[in-house]
Amino acid sequence: MVYVPFYTIILTMPNDNILITGANGQIGSVLTDELRKHYGTDRVLATDIRILTKADGPFEQLDILDQDRLSHLIKEYKITQIYHLAAILSAKGEQNPRRTWDLNMNGLFNVLECARQLGIRKVFYPSSIAVFGPATPKVSVPQETVMDPSTVYGISKQAGEQWCAYYYKRFGLDIRSLRYPGIIGYQSPPGGGTTDYAVDIFHYAVRKEPFECFLQKDTGLPMIYMPDAIRATLEVMEAPSEWISVRSSYNLSGMSFTPSQLVAAIRKHVPDFKVTYKPDFRQQIADSWSSSVDDRIARQDWSWKPEYDLKAMTADMLKHLGHLAVL
């Protein structure tokens, strides 16, 4: 297989019109901007249940549980691709499990059914390391493994993976998916996940305020820097269909570290940064997850390779947040 980089591939793609659900979220806001750079602002419709106060392109309010509204927008904007990001994440999900299941699963069904009925060309569905659980290997989790999620978010994502594979096999719907690790980015606030300490901590460091971490200092988890997460999303979506061998969800890895390792990296730039540890209910969630994943299938199929390690990510986060703080 000859690998062609994403930025070359996209130039050969047809004039797709894209709809993003959950566009106001941590990933959605960054992904919307990136897609608009490549497809054109008017070809990317951002949707969310929360109204944007300032929209830099087409925006429509959408409750993902309203299938009729979703169908209407697909027809009105002549949508050909859907990036379905609307979901309730792990920590917030445990506060209202039934609501989380309803939104995460029925929202996905609405997208899948609209895509099937209206001839959508491609769908992106984000999964998560939350699909793993206590019986999953703790290190270098393989692509095919035991999945016994311990949160309603993880349960919904595991079920979602299987429904995506089913719609591909049963209806030929071209669905692509990634199991995101914890995502770290400066562009938007965290969205209620168990790995969010790794975003918050940078804001405290820039303000030179003491930080209280809700995980134990030696809790290792898989992470990825936002630019790598966005690039992986675009690359898997633009890869030729014959390159995609996984129709549930690809393992994806960027880096793995513990809170204490992240603190040490930050202190190389902010030596007096003070951190204490006070584990809460999120510690139990983190303990059920694995510390690293094996993403060799993604690397083989569409030549995935992260660009940022802990050192490079830390420097870039502090650079951007420091600049934003000055402004």
How would you concisely characterize the structure shown here?
The protein contains twelve helices and twelve strands. α2 links the parallel β1 and β2.
Task: Report on this structure.
Mean pLDDT is 92; it is low at 7-12. The termini are far apart. Helix 5 (97-118) packs parallel to helix 6 (152-171). The protein is built from twelve helices and twelve strands. The chain has helices at 6-9, 26-39, 67-76, 90-93, 97-118, 152-171, 197-207, 226-238, 259-267, 281-287, 296-302, 310-326; strands spanning 18-21, 44-48, 59-61, 81-84, 122-128, 175-180, 182-184, 211-213, 221-225, 250-251, 255-257, 275-277. The chain is an alpha/beta fold and 327 residues long. Strand 5, helix 6 and strand 6 (175-180) form a beta-alpha-beta unit. A seven-stranded parallel β-sheet has the order 3-2-1-4-5-6-10, with helices on both faces. Strands 7-9-11 form a three-stranded mixed β-sheet.
SSE topology:
Layout (H helix, E strand, L loop, with lengths): L5 H4 L8 E4 L4 H14 L4 E5 L10 E3 L5 H10 L4 E4 L5 H4 L3 H22 L3 E7 L23 H20 L3 E6 L1 E3 L12 H11 L3 E3 L7 E5 H13 L11 E2 L3 E3 L1 H9 L7 E3 L3 H7 L8 H7 L7 H17 L1
Parallel strand pairs: 1-2, 1-4, 2-3, 4-5, 5-6, 6-10, 7-9, 8-12
Antiparallel strand pairs: 9-11
Helix pairs in contact: 3-5, 5-6, 7-9, 7-12
